[in-house]
Design a protein that fits this description.
Organism: Anhinga rufa
Strand content: under 5%
Number of domains: 1
CATH architecture: Orthogonal Bundle
Radius of gyration: 18 Å
InterPro entries: BEACH_dom (IPR000409), BEACH_dom_sf (IPR036372), BEACH_Domain (IPR050865)
GO biological process, one term: intracellular protein localization
Keywords: Repeat, WD repeat
Shape: globular
Pfam families: Beach (PF02138)
CATH superfamily: BEACH domain
Order of helices and strands: HHHHHHHHH
Number of helices: 9
Helix content: 25-40%
Length: 238
């Protein structure tokens, strides 16, 4: 598979799906759901210019420290952590880049994930402000908060329906703006959910991502998952 990918006989999307499968990740287990990277950082421009390296996320860094500002806090947390019982090892992040709640968070508008989300929240929808309501706002929250380290799920690259509230669920309204949560708010450069998926998939297969995807793979599936390489890369999870 690696050789096929290097020879460009399979797409970046296919390669990531294969890696997820080999790593034991599967659509059948929300706790081991396939994980995909955030690949863009520009969610505000009117047009998306895939020839400009500045629109892409730095794939060599864990999502928690893509924003330089967070790196210092994350490092200090690791260095100052001491478990009095000596059971828990030091870590940079207390949460994970992929978990069941995160999958339900992204797929809240689509069954069976809606029902699973409601069960998780003791029989009701979580408060609107904590829901997945906007792609630009989700990215901004990641940049502002080193404790939020969710990567993406494969649906971001092929499944426009999860961005629409086709079932008309009452997801509440945001506290400050009083905006009703309905369809997911898209970046300015996307004119519809289909357009978002088309451009996002194009970004995944772009020259820039093809040249840098291995850096993210090292963090998630490769040698930077544990040991000294993980510590150096600020990539140690609880």
């Amino acid at each position: 598979v690696l050789q096929k990918w290097v020879n460009r006989e399979i797409s970046n999307f296919d390669y990531l799906i294969q890696l997820n499968t080999m790593a034991g990740r599967t659509y059948n287990d929300l706790a081991q759901y396939p994980v995909f990277p955030w690949i863009l950082r520009d969610y505000t421009s009117e047009e998306l210019d895939l020839n400009n390296p500045a629109v892409f996320r730095d794939l060599s860094k864990p999502i928690g420290v893509v924003n330089e500002k967070n790196a210092k806090a994350v490092k200090e947390k690791y260095e100052n952590f001491e478990d009095p019982l000596g059971i828990i090892d030091k870590f940079h992040y207390g949460t994970h880049y992929s978990n069941a709640a995160g999958v339900m968070h992204y797929l809240i508008r689509v069954e069976p994930f809606t029902t699973l989300h409601i069960q998780l929240q003791s029989g009701r929808f979580d408060c609107a402000d904590r829901q997945f309501h906007s792609i630009p706002a989700t990215w901004q929250a990641l940049m502002d908060n080193p404790n939020d380290v969710k990567e993406l799920i494969p649906e971001f690259f092929y499944f426009p329906e999860f961005l629409e509230n086709q079932n008309g669920f009452n997801l509440g309204q945001l506290q400050i703006s009083k905006e009703v949560v309905n369809d997911v708010v898209l970046p300015k450069w996307a004119h519809s959910p289909e357009d978002f998926i088309y451009k996002h998939r194009k970004a995944l297969e772009s020259e820039y991502v093809s040249a840098h995807l291995h850096e993210w793979i090292d963090l998630i599936f490769g040698y930077k998952q544990r040991g000294p390489a993980a510590v150096e890369a600020l990539n140690v999870f609880y």
